Amino acid sequence: MNCGQVKRLLPPFLDEELSGRVRESIASHLASCPACRTELEALKADIHLLKQTETPEVTPFLVTRVMAEVRARKRPVPHGFGRLVGSLAAVLLVAVSIGVGVLFGSGLAQTSAPIAENSTEAAVSYVESSTTGMYSLMLGGD
Amino acid sequence: MLRAQAGDMAAFEELVRRHQHGLFSYLYRMCRNTSDAEEMAQVAMVKAWEKLGSFRGASSFKTWLYRIGTNLCFNLRTRRKPTEELSETMAAPDAARPEQAFQQKVREEVVQRALGRLPADQRAALVLSVYQDMSYREIAETMGKSVRAIDSLLFRAKTNVRKVLAQDRAKGII
């Protein structure tokens, strides 16, 4: 490894981000190269200077402010798995409700048409209320 | 984390307590203004609560939260220039050791000026590395970049800081 390559790798070397073999190559080069050692020391001095500074203390009211705002907002809506389960359950309920509606509808012959329509409406209504209930349950809400 | 995701506010409050100092410190180094840093930390945490449902655990909660903060910070920087208020925000000088207090103040100003001259992405990478002790992978997650890009950003940031500090050293300021 030449000096140019080593100088380019000194920051990740110092940050311990390099693999063992590359680290060993750099360490070996540094052992025999005063110029690169000087470069490494200069880099360390810069980082040391940056770290010598202070940050002002965060206000003790930050947590209070954040939580007050959080309480004023809605709870997070479940994503991913929770939402997928909710959607699948809704589809399943629609299918079952329609199936039940068709079954009862065919069994009641001619006079059943209005009842079947009512059944579908009832099924949709049931699905809507069930879905809402399901999300409420998952959220632990009212 | 899972409890907070399920809507447990006490669990979320614990997360806020755990990360408030680090997040504020990072944002302060980025925007050089206490009020802006506090406001951004607050907004970032409230956003985190709102988006908690979309957090899939591919990264740590810390890097995810800092990413929200980073985006807020970059957006703020594009809207207006940061206003420095360094002298007012630092601890009061130690009256018993005025010389050390003065040296510390000078160091603070030199460092903040050096950081302030970096492009926002270089500055973010450097601050996350030096002050938050994040690995390159964690910085990459926080900034939405590759590890290789972070390595490059940090190399350029450190080279640029070196140039600024060398000028101050040549002038005998530090």
Q: What would you report as the Rg of chain A, rounded to the nearest angstrom?
A: 34 Å
Order of helices and strands of chain B: HHHHHHHHH
Number of strands of chain A: 0
Mean pLDDT of chain A: 73
Helix/strand class of chain A: mainly alpha
Low-confidence region ranges of chain A: 108-142
- What oligomeric assembly is this protein in? heterodimer
Q: What percent of residues of chain B adopt helix (DSSP H or I)?
A: over 70%
Strand content of chain A: under 5%
Number of domains of chain A: 2
Overall spatial form of chain B: globular
Instruction: Summarize the main sheet of chain B.
Output: none
Distance between the termini of chain B: 45 Å
Task: Examine the secondary-structure arrangement and name the CATH architecture of the largest domain in chain B.
Answer: Orthogonal Bundle
Q: Round the Cα radius of gyration of chain B to an integer and report it.
A: 18 Å
Low-confidence stretches of chain B: none
Number of strands of chain B: 0
Helices, strands, pairings?
The complex is a heterodimer of chains A (142) and B (174).
Chain A: H1 3-14, H2 20-32, H3 34-51, H4 62-72, H5 80-107, H6 113-139
Chain B: H1 2-5, H2 9-31, H3 34-51, H4 61-79, H5 86-89, H6 98-116, H7 120-130, H8 136-143, H9 147-170
Helix pairs in contact in B: 2-3, 2-4, 3-4, 4-8, 6-9, 7-8, 7-9, 8-9
